Amino acid sequence: MQTLCESCRHLREIITPKRSRFLMCLLSQTDPRWPKYPPQPVGTCAGYQHGRSTDSDADHP
Ligand code: SF4
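Above: the input entities. Below: the structure tokens describing the complete assembly.
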């Protein structure tokens, strides 16, 4: 099942050096109602905004 997060502008995709993939919700940084790593797949979400930028980003420690 496709998750809403994939097309949401609040998504930050984290790829670890071992190629594990995590979907981080940037809304969690400003609003405690959203978990940092929402359980997937997300089917409905009040914070969803269409328009994900294409940059996927590895998290640099
Ligand atoms: S706002 Fe909702 S749909 Fe968007 S990334 Fe966060 S949890 Fe996913």
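Note for the figure: The chain has a mean pLDDT of 89.
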